[in-house]
Specification:
With 699 residues, the protein is of the alpha+beta class. Strands 4, 5, 6, 7, 10, 11, 12, 13 and 14 form a 9-stranded mixed β-sheet that branches. Strands 27-26-30-33-34-29-28 form a 7-stranded antiparallel β-sheet. A hairpin with a 4-residue loop joins strand 28 and strand 29. The longest helix has 29 residues, at 512-540. 50% of the residues are buried.
C-alpha cells in the first residue's frame, strides 16, 4: 500500500507503379545540423478515388524520405536531397482509410502524412535540455487536414507522470463550402513551426471563421492568441467555462460563441459541426466536436495517447496499446463515470466514433471500435469494483488546484474507490448535494478567498456533509489567494467530520515530490474507506485449504527503491522471481495501491536490494513502517545512488539496477517485468533471506 505494509497494518520522388510513399524530414539537434532518415511504413492512406486535381502537386526542394509500401522491413538508410512532390487528398469526403486497397492505381504515391522540413529544437528552461520539435500534416478528407505537432523528446507531462515516447499535439482544419474552422492549436513551444504550417494549410489566415477550443489546457489552446492576431475576425467557440478561462489566456477582447450540448455550426450546404459537452475528460471545460458530413469526431484529450510516431493513424496496435492504456489510467480512470456519460451522449446524438481525431497521439481508425470499447470496459470495471466513493472539490484555472486534485484522485482510484471531480467555479448547488450525498470521503482543494460564488458553494458543501459518516482531506492549491486550510478544516471538524490526516500544505511551485505527497494522501484516504471491505473479500476469496497450500510457496526478502526528481519511494517485496535468460529479466508483484507503483511505469528505472538472512530484520522493520504521505522513507538509512539515481542500501548483500519493460494487470497487483541492467554483490558468502508464510491471504 501507500506505506509498504498493505495488509500488515501501488514521417517523393514520384516512382510510377511502385506505390512508394514519402515523407520529408530534417532533424535539428544542438548544432541544428541536418540529418535524414527513412523507414518503411505499414500501409497507404489514399482511397481509390483520385480526381484530376490530385495530379497537381506543389514541389519542395528538401530532403526526401522514400518509404516502401512493403511490410517486410523497417530498416533505415541515408537518402539524398531531392525535389519533393506532395499530393492533395482524395475528392471523396469520407475519411481516407488507414489501410490500402489492392485496386489502387499504380501510378499514384501513397502518403502517410507529410513531415515538414521546418523543424527545430527547443530548450527547456527548467533543465537546459534540448527537445526535437517537428510538424506534420495529413489530409484526412479533401477539405479536412490534421496538423500534428511532434514533441519527440518530451519525457514528462505536467510533472505528474513520465512519457516513454514523447507526445503529439493535434490540430485540425475544416474547409466547409462557406465556413473554415480551426479545431484547437498547439503548445506555445511550437509557435513558429505551427504558425508556418497553418499558413501552408490556410494560405490566408483571415479566412478562418471559427476557432473551436475543445478545452483550455495550454497544450491545445496555447497558440489561440497568436492565431487571433492573424485572424482577428475569427470567432472562438467553446463552452461557457472554456471561454471564461480563455479570457485569462488571451487577455484581449475577441469574438466568442458559447455552445452547449446539441448546438451546431453551419459550415455550408447542410454540413454541420455538432458539439457534445464532455466535462472532466479531463478538464471541466472539455467538449467534443462532430462533423456530420465527414463523420469525423474530434475528442481532444479523450481516447488519446502520449505516443509520438510518424504514423498518423493507429497502425501498430501492439506498440500503441501500452501508451493508450497508461494514458487512460493516469487521466481518465479517475473520471470513469464521466467517460461513460460522454459515450452515452455520443450514442444519443448520433455521433459515430469510427474515426476519432484525438488531441494526442495517432488518430483512431483501424482499431477505433476496439479502443473505444476498451474505454467503456475499463470504466465500467472501475465503477463495478468501487468499494467507496470520494468527491474531489477543486477550482479550475486557479493556481495548481486542478493539477493537484488530479494527483489526489489518482491516489484514491488506486484503492478501488470511485471519484467524482467537481469544479467549484462551475458546479451548482444541486450537483454538490448529490455528489456529497453518495460520497464516503471528501477532498477539498482550498478555493480562492475573494470569489463570492465559490464561497457560496463552500457553504452548500458544508451544509451537505454527513457528520460522523464521512472523512475529509483538505489541501492547499498554491493559487496565491487560498482560503487558509487550517481554519477551513476546523469548520468541518466542528460539525463532526473526521479528517483523514492534517491538511496538506503547498508553499511553493509543485515538484515531483509535491505531486507524490498529494497522491499518497489520496491513497491513504481511500485505504481508510475500503480497508474493512478488502479484508472481508480477501478472506472469502479462497478456501482455507487453498490459502494454506498457496502460503507454502516461499520467496525472498527484498527492498525495492525508486527515485524520480524529488520523488522517491521504497517497499518491502517478497513476490520476486526470475522470468527470462535473454535478456536477464524478472518479475515483481506490486500492489496497485503501493506508493512506489507510480514510479515503476514502463521505461522507469529502479533498484532491487537483496537482504541477507542474517541481517534483514532492521531494514525490513524500517520499511514496513506506516509512513505518512510525503515522508522521507530514507531518513536515517545509509544508502548511495545507483546510476539511475535510485538508492542502493548499505544493508543489502547485492543489488540489481533494473528497467521496467512491461506491466501485466493482475487484478489487485501489477506484475512488473523488468530487465536487469547492472548489479553487484557486496557479500559473496551471504545468503538472501527467505520468506515463509502459513496462509496466502497476507504477505
Amino acid at each position: 500500500n501507500n506505506n509498504n505494509n498493505n495488509n500488515n497494518n501501488n514521417n517523393h520522388e514520384r516512382q510510377p507503379r511502385s506505390r512508394e510513399m514519402t515523407t520529408t524530414t530534417t532533424t535539428a539537434r544542438a548544432n541544428f545540423a541536418a540529418t535524414t532518415t527513412t523507414r518503411r511504413c505499414f500501409s497507404s492512406f489514399l482511397s481509390s478515388r483520385r480526381p484530376e486535381h490530385h495530379r497537381r502537386r506543389r514541389r519542395f526542394q528538401k530532403t526526401t524520405v522514400v518509404v516502401s509500401k512493403s511490410l517486410s522491413s523497417e530498416s533505415t538508410e541515408e537518402t539524398a536531397a531531392t525535389t519533393t512532390p506532395t499530393t492533395t487528398a482524395a475528392a471523396d469526403q469520407r475519411p481516407l482509410s488507414s489501410s490500402s486497397s489492392d485496386d489502387d492505381d499504380d501510378d499514384y504515391d501513397c502518403v502517410v502524412g507529410r513531415l515538414l522540413p521546418n523543424e527545430t529544437a527547443w530548450t527547456n528552461p527548467a533543465n537546459g535540455e534540448e527537445y526535437r520539435l517537428q510538424t506534420q500534416t495529413h489530409e484526412l478528407t479533401r477539405d479536412t487536414t490534421v496538423i500534428r505537432s511532434l514533441d519527440w523528446d518530451r519525457d514528462r507531462f505536467d510533472i505528474e507522470f513520465g512519457l516513454e515516447k514523447g507526445t503529439t499535439y493535434n490540430s485540425y482544419v475544416i474547409k466547409g463550402k462557406e465556413k473554415t474552422v480551426l479545431i484547437d492549436t498547439s503548445h506555445e513551444k511550437f509557435e513558429q513551426l505551427y504558425m508556418e504550417t497553418l499558413a501552408s494549410v490556410v494560405e490566408d489566415a483571415e479566412t478562418i471563421d471559427y476557432i473551436v477550443c475543445s478545452h483550455t489546457e495550454p497544450d491545445h489552446s496555447g497558440l489561440i492568441k497568436r492565431v487571433l492576431e492573424r485572424a482577428p475576425d475569427a470567432t472562438v467557440v467553446g463552452t461557457k467555462v472554456c471561454l471564461a478561462f480563455l479570457d485569462n489566456l488571451v487577455q484581449k477582447e475577441f469574438k466568442k460563441l458559447v455552445v452547449k450540448g446539441g448546438d451546431v455550426l453551419e459550415l455550408g450546404e447542410g454540413r454541420q459541426l455538432k458539439f457534445i459537452p464532455a466535462p472532466n475528460l479531463h478538464w471541466p471545460d472539455t467538449m467534443f466536436s462532430y462533423d456530420t458530413e465527414s463523420e469525423l469526431a474530434f475528442t481532444c484529450d479523450a481516447f488519446g495517447a502520449h505516443y509520438c510516431t510518424k504514423n498518423v493513424f493507429d497502425e501498430d496496435l501492439p506498440k500503441l496499446m501500452p501508451h493508450f492504456s497508461f494514458y487512460y489510467e493516469c487521466l481518465m480512470k479517475p473520471n470513469a463515470r464521466s467517460v461513460l456519460t460522454a459515450l452515452r451522449k455520443c450514442e444519443a446524438d448520433g455521433v459515430k466514433l469510427s474515426t476519432v481525431c484525438t488531441g494526442h497521439g495517432p488518430i483512431l481508425q483501424r482499431n477505433s471500435e476496439e479502443l473505444i470499447g476498451d474505454y467503456k470496459k475499463w470504466s465500467e470495471k472501475a465503477l463495478e469494483k468501487a468499494k467507496a466513493s470520494v468527491a474531489v472539490f477543486y477550482t479550475a484555472d486557479y493556481g495548481f488546484s486542478d493539477r493537484l486534485s488530479q494527483s489526489v484522485a489518482r491516489g484514491v482510484v488506486k484503492t478501488d474507490c470511485e471519484v467524482a471531480m467537481v469544479d467549484l467555479s462551475t458546479c451548482d448547488a444541486q450537483q454538490i448535494v448529490e455528489d456529497v450525498g453518495r460520497a464516503s470521503g471528501i477532498v477539498l482543494l482550498a478555493p480562492p478567498n475573494a470569489n463570492e460564488d465559490i464561497q457560496d458553494n463552500i457553504g452548500v458543501l458544508i451544509g451537505a456533509v454527513k457528520p460522523g459518516k464521512q472523512k475529509i482531506l483538505v489541501c492547499e492549491s498554491y493559487g496565491g489567494d487560498d482560503e487558509p486550510v487550517d481554519p477551513l478544516m476546523r469548520k468541518f471538524a466542528e460539525i463532526g467530520l473526521q479528517e483523514s490526516q492534517s491538511p496538506l500544505k503547498c508553499q511553493s511551485t509543485p515538484t515531483e515530490g509535491t505531486y507524490q505527497l498529494y497522491e499518497e494522501a489520496g491513497t491513504d484516504l481511500g485505504q481508510l474507506l475500503t480497508q474493512k471491505e478488502k479484508l472481508k473479500e480477501m478472506k472469502l476469496s479462497m478456501s482455507a485449504d487453498v490459502a494454506r497450500a498457496l502460503g507454502r510457496v516461499s520467496g525472498g526478502l527484498y527492498i525495492v527503491t525508486a527515485l524520480q526528481g524529488t520523488a522517491k519511494s521504497a517497499m518491502v517485496a517478497s513476490w520476486v522471481a526470475q522470468a527470462s535468460f535473454e535478456p536477464l529479466g524478472f518479475t515483481i508483484a506490486v500492489a496497485k495501491d503501493r506508493a512506489i507503483e507510480s514510479l515503476m511505469q514502463v521505461g522507469d528505472s529502479f533498484v532491487l536490494n537483496c537482504l541477507s538472512e542474517d541481517g534483514f530484520e532492521a531494514p525490513m522493520k524500517h520499511f514496513l513502517k506506516r509512513f505518512p504521505p510525503g515522508a522521507d522513507r530514507f531518513e536515517g538509512v545509509d544508502w548511495k545512488p545507483a546510476s539511475c539515481g535510485s538508492p542502493i542500501l548499505a544493508d543489502a548483500v547485492s543489488y540489481l539496477e533494473c528497467k521496467v519493460v512491461s506491466r501485466m494487470d493482475a487484478n489487485d497487483h501489477w506484475v512488473i517485468y523488468s530487465e536487469a541492467i547492472d548489479g553487484g554483490v557486496f557479500n559473496k558468502d551471504a545468503k538472501t533471506a527467505s520468506h515463509f508464510r502459513k496462509v496466502a491471504t497476507y504477505y
